[in-house]
């Protein structure tokens, strides 16, 4: 899906990939609202987003399944400014980072997966995301866009899919009620 923002870019732009996840407070609605909110990020255009997927949580404590998607954003914002906007969207959805359990349930989780060709090992913003290539909930939606997509420092998405084939990823229909899952379009990593 293509979206247009009300904030045209005035600086050179880059492509940023963002993962979206939620497993609390009507997660399908949370992810859909997050996608709408990404279309309002200043100096940015939401170019595309994946279908929604139901996925098993990775690590952490026992918790409900997640709803995940990825989005492709063209932006003129510097990477840290974009991260700041993502964190503001999380807070607006009710996320309280100081009260969270590490790898625990989330109202909304927006991760900056990659930002152009940027490589960063800064603990506050590591790019590309350090576990991107290990997570089916990221790789499968990225492969929906293009399995030959190359993420700097990770390589082609298709190269990593077999390593995550055991992780549960189920496509959710576009107009499904909360938590209904595709019966005819289950996606295999």
TrEMBL record:
Pathway noted in the entry: Cofactor biosynthesis; tetrahydrofolate biosynthesis; 2-amino-4-hydroxy-6-hydroxymethyl-7,8-dihydropteridine diphosphate from 7,8-dihydroneopterin triphosphate: step 4/4
Keyword Nucleotide-binding listed: yes
Pfam families, alphabetized: HPPK
CDD domains from the UniProt entry: HPPK (cd00483)
Gene3D superfamilies, alphabetized: 7,8-Dihydro-6-hydroxymethylpterin-pyrophosphokinase HPPK
Domain 7,8-dihydro-6-hydroxymethylpterin-pyrophosphokinase, residue spans: 18-147
UniProt keyword annotation of Magnesium present: no
GO biological process terms on file: folic acid biosynthetic process; tetrahydrofolate biosynthetic process
GO molecular function: 2-amino-4-hydroxy-6-hydroxymethyldihydropteridine diphosphokinase activity; ATP binding; kinase activity
Enzyme class: transferase
Record keywords: ATP-binding, Folate biosynthesis, Kinase, Nucleotide-binding, Transferase
Its EC number(s): 2.7.6.3
Chain's role: Catalyzes the transfer of pyrophosphate from adenosine triphosphate (ATP) to 6-hydroxymethyl-7,8-dihydropterin, an enzymatic step in folate biosynthesis pathway.
Family: Belongs to the HPPK family.
Protein name as it appears in the record: 2-amino-4-hydroxy-6-hydroxymethyldihydropteridine pyrophosphokinase
Species in which this protein is naturally found: Acidithiobacillus ferrooxidans
Taxonomic lineage: Bacteria, Pseudomonadati, Pseudomonadota, Acidithiobacillia, Acidithiobacillales
Protein encoded by which gene: folK
